[in-house]
Amino acid sequence: MESSDKLEKFMQKNRVDRDFLQSEEWRKFQEATGKKTFNISTDGFWANIIEHQLPIVGKYFYVPRGPLGEVKMEDVINLAKKEKANWIRIDVDYKNSKYKIEKAPHDMQPREVFIIDITKSEEELLAQMKSKTRYNIKVAQKHNVKISVADKSQPDSQKYLENLLELVKITAKRDGITPHPENYYRQMFEIIPAENLKLYVAEYENKIIAANIVIFYGNIATYLHGASDNEHRNVMAPHLLQWQQIQDAKKAGLKKYDFGGICSGPTALDQNDLKRSDRYNAWAGITKFKTGFSPNTKPILFPGSYDIIINKKKYYLYRLIQKIKGICRH
Length: 330
Description:
The protein is α+β, with helices and mostly antiparallel strands and 330 residues long. The chain is 39% helix and 25% strand.
């Protein structure tokens, strides 16, 4: 049986929500970027594992947004020992007296995620938005911003991908962030199936000024990456992009739309973040943008990342290095 079929049967049998980060498509993409991966699946348990390699302290295992089902970690721990991984990072609050477990120094995924119900009518979805969000969508429509979507099976996809890569550079410089390497996006577009990965672009006056990557998987569409130009920000292209993505997901029969990470308050920050008010402030703009599409929807709060320690010496050396890096950044 194909691994994707195994996962589908597991999800249905155990009534676990589908998460693309635990899918075979995502695991294969991680392999394409050069990482070693593993899968452990038993009755009631599923874990796709990504191996990360760090200088000095060696390797560790990461189970993104997992494991799923009954949290029986013994098989994962045994594999980690066999592969000489020094710790296992998971995105669940796992309790086990046999092993030392600590809160990770940083969360691998956003602790707070904003997901809205799109089973409502388009009229209801518009009505639930903040008035400013509806207004900005109309502004983009009034300026004749054109929205196009492509997947890798379509002739325009390569052109749009190059547009995205250029916009990623512009956005990273503007916001002071470090983007993924270009090859990361290229491999993502190449490896992830066309039915799952969609590339949306917004065009104004014959120029692409914004682009988003959206994952369609199971019953949920996930806004994964986005970028925009410094020019023509007044035409509000990102608002229209999101609205078109929501409409398309709804037409495809999906039930939820995941805007990704936000930060509505201190509870959404890990302990390391709480020491830095600039971290909270950095999320303010994107949080306001996303929550404007459904201000009465409560975000989903995850416990964050935890480390199951296999090799204490290597792990605490890693924590020391992280602490030194944090001091140097300030």
